Amino acid sequence: MRKVYSLVIALFVVSSFSFMGCTRHPNAEQLQALEEQKNAALSAENTLEERRREKSRLESELNQKRRELQETQNELELVKQRIAE
User: What CA–CA distance (Å, rounded) separates 73 from 65?
Assistant: First the structure.
């Protein structure tokens, strides 16, 4: 998660050096590079959001499996007690 943000920031900083020039107005190459950087940042943010949703779903599934495991262990203990009696 932080790697993605760090990567986006690093790309932005590095690309900003290439935008510095002698003219006050950006040329076509600089505008295209800026657009590519914006698209890359949006793509990284979308990927990050997808990963967060996936992580949330997997954590929910893990919690459900843990509850099922606990219920099964409780049932096993109950069966062992009944057999011992």
Answer: 12
Q: Are the beta carbons of 51 and 1 closer than 8 angstroms?
A: yes
pLDDT value at residue 26: 80
Please write the tens of the pLDDT for every residue from 47-73.
Answer: 999 999 999 999 999 999 999 999 999
CA 75/CA 8 separation, integer angstroms = 51
Phi, psi of 21 (to 5 degrees): -145, -170
Q: What is the pTM of this model?
A: 0.56
CA dist 76 → 5, 70, 72, 79, 82 (Å): 47, 10, 6, 5, 10
